[in-house]
């Protein structure tokens, strides 16, 4: 900590990060141990964060991220969308298929940006705001594959057919190296199989988006 920073704010932000990294919440004792501060300090931090709905405590006393974080998160999507659009436009025009940026939203994959090609006679309609389970469709499966790899392997691409829409095939690659964002870039097309060049092109687009978000 330097003289220009706030120790209390720093601890509060660390609490939020710790809670965001767990699915089952943390007790006051667990937070105290992880932060290296006494329980009284943790109680005060949690009480303040609860007042702003950034933290909630369940009946068992475990602290979890509160719904107030969602209000902050909604403002992130437009910024991410704006940064991703150039790469998505290039991808859609190059492949001639609908391109999309998908982010994790709870247990779902949520499309936050979609670009359709301008020169094709027909293409798959895919709307921003469309959500589906992470284990269905190329976008979600690419994210799960990146989780399993733990960032240790060079990102590849995932191909699927008919999982979200009959007759549609998808290709997606995960965003890698972007702190605080878990997502993928992909395309969806009306085809029995994804052409060979599409997978590597999607990987390149995912790298472009990741670079724009760093």
Overview of this structure, please?
Helix 2 packs across helix 3 (39-51) and helix 5 packs antiparallel against helix 7 (198-213). Strands 5-4-3-8-7-6 form a six-stranded antiparallel beta sheet. A two-stranded antiparallel ribbon has the order 1-2. It contains seven helices and eight strands; from the N terminus they run αααββααβββαβββα. Helix content is 43%, strand content 21%. The relative contact order is 0.11. It is of the alpha+beta class and 214 residues long. It has helices at 7-20, 28-35, 39-51, 68-74, 76-95, 137-149, 198-213; strands at 55-57, 63-65, 98-105, 108-115, 131-133, 158-161, 168-174, 183-190.
Strand order of the largest sheet: 5-4-3-8-7-6
End-to-end distance, in Å? 24 Å
The major beta sheet can be summarized as: 6 strands, antiparallel
Order of helices and strands: HHHEEHHEEEHEEEH
- Output the number of helix runs: 7
Proportion of beta-strand residues: 15-25%
Global mean pLDDT: 91
Salient structural properties:
transcription regulation, alpha+beta, two-stranded antiparallel ribbon, 43% helix, 214 residues, DNA-binding
Secondary-structure blueprint:
Layout (H helix, E strand, L loop, with lengths): L6 H14 L7 H8 L3 H13 L3 E3 L5 E3 L2 H7 L1 H20 L2 E8 L2 E8 L15 E3 L3 H13 L8 E4 L6 E7 L8 E8 L7 H16 L1
């Amino acid at each position: 900590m330097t003289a220009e920073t706030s120790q209390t704010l720093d601890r509060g932000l660390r609490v939020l990060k710790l809670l965001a990294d767990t699915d089952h919440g943390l007790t006051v004792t667990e937070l105290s141990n992880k932060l290296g501060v006494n329980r009284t300090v943790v109680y005060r931090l949690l009480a303040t964060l609860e007042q702003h709905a950034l933290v909630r405590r369940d009946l068992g006393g475990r602290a979890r991220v509160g719904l107030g974080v969602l209000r902050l998160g909604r403002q992130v999507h437009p910024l991410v969308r704006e940064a991703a659009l150039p790469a998505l436009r290039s991808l859609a025009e190059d492949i001639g298929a609908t391109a999309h940026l998908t982010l994790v939203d709870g247990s779902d994959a949520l499309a936050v940006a979609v670009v359709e090609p301008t020169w094709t006679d027909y293409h798959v309609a895919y709307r921003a705001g469309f959500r589906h389970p992470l284990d269905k469709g190329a976008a979600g499966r690419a994210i799960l594959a990146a989780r399993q790899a733990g960032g240790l392997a060079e990102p590849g691409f995932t191909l699927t057919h008919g999982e979200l829409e009959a007759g549609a095939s998808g290709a997606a690659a995960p965003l890698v190296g972007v702190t605080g964002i878990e997502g993928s870039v992909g395309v969806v097309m009306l085809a029995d199989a994804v052409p060979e060049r599409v997978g590597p092109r999607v990987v390149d687009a995912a790298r472009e988006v990741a670079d724009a978000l760093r």
